[in-house]
Amino acid sequence: MRFSSQLFSVVAIGLAVSACNSVDYKKTKGGMPYQLFSSEKGDSVKPGSIIKIAFNQKIKDSTMYPPAGQPATPVYFQVTPDSQPYDISEVLTHLKEGDSVYAVQLIDTFMARIAKNPQSQPLPPQFKKGDKIVTTLKVMKVFQSPQEAQADEAQERMNAFKNDNKIQQQLTADQKKIQDYLTQNGIQAQKVGLGTFVQVLTPGAEPKVTDGKYVSLKYKGQTFAGTVFDTNMDNSFNHTDPLGFVVGGSPMIKGFEEGIKGLGKGAKARLYIPSPLAYGAQSPSPDIKANENLIFDIEVLDVTNQAPTANMQPSPNNGGAGR
């Protein structure tokens, strides 16, 4: 992935610093030692800024972030005006795009502060006296708007998806299973986007569903074995309000979003979604197995340019509605 080399450069900075005994650390107001590697130019990080960082955190030889088995993906967040003492948040507003930081937090210091304040939250049991947390980060981007940050994050997720060999192997296998199912049952469906199959049952009218549009719809999600795990088409899951969301700006599963694009108001369709475009290995429901292909029945109720004042979005359970 294209951000891997950037994260490696941050870790390399940390290794270089730790190998040098003569490094002069600065200290935050809360007493955290850190070393700043400043870029020549770049937009400053301010309270309210949305930033993208490469981030790595270790204790002894164990990596705390990213979690074991997960790729080193960039972290996106909005900087708040508040900071915690003896924490990396103390230095954020002193940085600019391109800057890197190497910081050290001593577990002994945390223990001493907790001893002075018994109401403090206790340390996790794996943190031992004499340990230290080493954090390295690089400010990769300071965004000018939330929309710019959302677009960048979406692109990073897409890059990660396309470059994950395990996911791509699963996608290829699942697409074949779905294509075989469609052929065996005489179903005419079109493959769209990254691999969702769409069977249009009732053509809709203008306007069409596109990125940025607000869509409201009815849905029913089920497995290929016929187990329904969520729906708002009837009261079996205790919610019948339409699902409403902005296309391209909501945390919907990939297959659900790409499957409804191009459908018009009043359209009815059935989506056949390969597991990597659904919930993958992380099932949100006992009714959905890991790496299980899914089917969604869709009825598009309305397509508008913006969300209504009263957001119609319900809170579907069992991981339904493509969340």
From TrEMBL:
Has the keyword Isomerase been applied to this entry? Answer: yes
- Which keywords annotate this record? Isomerase, Rotamase
Q: Which domain of life is it from?
A: Bacteria
Residues forming the PPIase FKBP-type domain are: 212-304
What are the GO MF terms of this UniProt record?
peptidyl-prolyl cis-trans isomerase activity
Which intervals of the chain form a coiled coil?
Answer: none
* Reactions accelerated catalytically: [protein]-peptidylproline (omega=180) = [protein]-peptidylproline (omega=0)
EC nos: 5.2.1.8
Q: Which InterPro entries match?
A: PPIase_dom_sf, PPIase_FKBP_dom
One Pfam family, please name it: FKBP_C
The answer to whether the entry has keyword rRNA-binding is no
Q: Which family does it belong to?
A: Belongs to the FKBP-type PPIase family.
Q: Which PANTHER family match?
A: 39 KDA FK506-BINDING NUCLEAR PROTEIN (PTHR43811:SF19), FKBP-TYPE PEPTIDYL-PROLYL CIS-TRANS ISOMERASE FKPA (PTHR43811)
Q: What is this protein called?
A: peptidylprolyl isomerase
